[in-house]
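The aim of this short unit is practical: by the end, you should be able to scan a pair of folded records and say something sensible about each. We start with the first protein, listed as its amino acid sequence and then its structure tokens.
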Amino acid sequence: MKIENFMPSYKNTGVDKKFSGLFSEPEKRHMGFSLLFRLTVMVLCSLVVSSGVFALEQWGEGPIRDQLFARQDAKDAFGRRAEREKKIDEFLKSGMAGESNLGYLRTMFMDIPEKDRALMEEENRDRLVILTAVAEILASSEGLKLTEENLQAKFPAAIKYFCDLREKYVPKGTMIQNPDGKWVQKY
């Protein structure tokens, strides 16, 4: 299954232009994957940190959690996300953003202030870091090499893991996209 199968359609919405310049050339080289793959994965990400929705203990117990929190890249991403927690919760409660069935934070309408859009893009970048780490953990646990192909194969499981956790802990009133694509409000 290709990662492109999980990519939402943004045709004629302007979002495709917004995501086109998220990573600089040095960042792309540092990441070690193609820009298309990284941008695709970015919109697939979901996770949260610190108090409330972002609480680390909400990850439960187990090898994925233990390995995830042993990684510096994930710790750094969780720390940055904790700084944005209150604002992201406001976006979710107000309906400005929702949690997609692919695990990323998605704007619910296009006419939002640029500073808020930038904050959501930062959130999705950190979700990318964390989701990539989980996909690597899943691949490694099966003895697979960390290739783009193997990571792509593990993203559906990582997405499901994140979405299941995320749905439990998002604030009431949050718009959540069901697996069938329908948006519903959490009560």
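Turning to the second protein, read its sequence before its tokens, just as you did above.
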Amino acid sequence: MTMAVRMPYESLRCGRGGDRGAGAMSGDEAGPVLRPGDAETFRQVWRGFGSTVAVIATEHGAVRHAMLATAVSSVSMDPPSLLVCVNRTASAHAALHGRGAFSLGLMAAPHRDLAAAIAESPSAMRFAHGTWRRLQDADAAIAGLPWLEEAQATLFCATDACHDYGTHSVLIARIAGAIGARTTDPLLYCDGGYGRFAPGEG
């Protein structure tokens, strides 16, 4: 399906009795209504920002943990690194912090149902969905990490820094290894639903 971005718009207030004729200059017009910078405004605006769906997994204390995430971004190519934002109430948060390493699988659009099943399952049942492997023959930092075979590509990450901000922890991790290929048909999440990228013409 094609993902449509829906953004809420406020009505415009026009200066000088609403007259926007030839004599009106841009400086004479009151722009869009400034909304408060509170959580509700931010939530409404950011819902229209689409992001690639990733599945994050780790193992700590002989217990596996997995979660879906969209708050992921590249940081640097030297060293190759990324960041992921994790709510401190997430069931995987303590394990991610304790292990200091995780796999990050980039989901492809054809696996929408699998991603949804993982997201909607209780933490103890998430590994019942999909084909999960354990990383072998790797550096000690990432050895044994669980990873999802159905992911288009998987990055194995070792956490270098963790910063708490607001309700979340920001994990900054270097890329220690990778499996798979470039994601050409990524699964996206936007405005509360899953979708896929529709390339423009030309």
